[in-house]
Specification:
Helices cover about 40% and strands about 15% of the residues. It has 15 helices and 15 strands. The protein has a five-stranded antiparallel beta sheet.
Length: about 375
């Protein structure tokens, strides 16, 4: 699509637009459920990650607020966009979970001999029916599902059968998993059993795209596809085009956006922020240059897919951080800047890291803050 004549948005303008929509320019006082919905969930591979995600955006956030949403079933930990685990509102889980189904079917095919009808010699509908029966009866761990599969289909690959049920059935990880300060194995229930109603079987992809633009735009077709995990997003954006604004980026690619969404000027101040592990602010675009400088991108990659907490300085990733809890000792928060920072940024980083350490310790525990020298 030709972009001649379109207004061009530079990298820093895109950065400030993203930070404004992600509530990372200024902390706000809003209910956690409202922010969770605005962000279309927070990635939750690490149980504490959504708590740090909300802490970095909300003024006065207390972890008990998200824990209460999970235990009260107003929010859930479920497999959503890109086939990854997210903490989302229950309403969004019901509305959008099935948009991830093609992704999950692809994942099953790459790990099993799934052909759409049979897995390891057993018909898929049989596996799913048994999974619904078992997970409705009681939440189960993956290990417990393997045992049940082995007993139901002796001589077949129980791991493949269990994985197929876990991947293809709409499920949630039930508390205490994901509750702040609690521990427990990942136990699965079906969405219908846990929330009392089934997922929507015909979800609206256009509604999800509009929600994405509100939280992550302006965005290219490739950006939307990267975040959602869905390949066929251009027809959706073309259908929405009459109600969207269209810009161009510096490489001449179309950028779609909502007319009333914030697009602050490039010189808008951006404070230092410690962003949660796996936070979508660094993962939700095909071109991550709007927040991750190219020279630092490799530092965020790992063979096992772990995405560390990141440090934003003047809006861009300039370091990583992690928390370690050691028995009854202090909570240790370690920050690793990628380069030596000017004094004003270094002071901001130390203040923000100290607040993060206090949050990790529960507001009253002993903390140890380590800011390493750039290597």
């Amino acid at each position: 699509m030709a972009t001649t004549g379109l207004e061009v948005l530079g990298g820093t303008v895109l950065n400030r637009a993203l930070l404004a929509r992600q509530l990372l320019l200024e902390r706000v006082r809003r209910p956690a459920a409202e922010v969770l919905a605005h962000l279309v969930g927070l990635q939750a591979q690490a149980p504490d990650a959504p708590y740090f995600g909300l802490w970095s955006r909300l003024r006065g956030f207390r972890p008990e607020e998200l824990s209460a949403l999970l235990t009260g079933r107003a929010a859930v930990r479920a497999t959503m966009m890109r086939g990854t685990l997210h903490a989302v509102t229950s309403a969004d889980c019901l509305a959008f979970r099935m948009l991830a189904q093609p992704i999950l079917e692809r994942q099953v095919r790459t790990q099993t001999d799934y052909d759409g009808r049979r897995v390891a010699g057993v018909r898929v509908p049989e596996v799913l029916a048994a999974g619904v029966e078992w997970l409705t009866e009681a939440p189960r761990t993956p290990a417990e599902l393997r045992v049940l599969c082995a007993a139901r289909w002796p001589g077949h690959d129980a791991e493949q059968l269990s994985y197929t049920a876990r991947a293809l059935l709409p499920t949630v990880q039930v508390p205490p998993r994901g509750v702040w300060g609690a521990s427990g194995a990942a136990r699965l229930s079906t969405v219908a059993a846990w929330l009392g109603e089934p997922v929507h079987l015909e979800p609206d992809p256009a509604a999800l795209v509009l929600r994405y633009l509100a939280a992550f735009g302006p965005a290219t077709v490739a950006d939307v596809a990267t975040w959602s995990g869905r390949a066929a997003v251009r027809p959706v954006l073309d259908a929405l085009r009459p109600q969207l604004l269209v810009f161009a980026d510096e490489r001449g690619r179309e950028l779609f956006d909502l007319p009333d969404a914030p697009r602050p000027p490039a010189d808008t101040p951006a404070p230092v922020r410690l962003v949660a592990p796996y936070d979508n602010v660094v993962l939700a675009h095909a071109d991550r240059a709007r927040v991750v400088p190219e020279e630092h991108r490799a530092r965020l990659l790992s063979k096992n897919g772990i995405v560390p907490g990141t440090v934003l300085v003047d809006g861009f990733v300039q370091g990583v951080w992690q928390v370690a809890r050691r028995g009854g000792g202090p909570v240790r928060l370690t920050v690793r800047p990628f380069r030596r920072l000017p004094a004003r940024w270094a002071a901001q980083l130390r203040r923000e890291a100290a607040l993060a350490a206090e949050f990790a310790a529960g507001g009253g525990g002993a903390v140890e803050l380590v800011v390493e020298e750039p290597g």
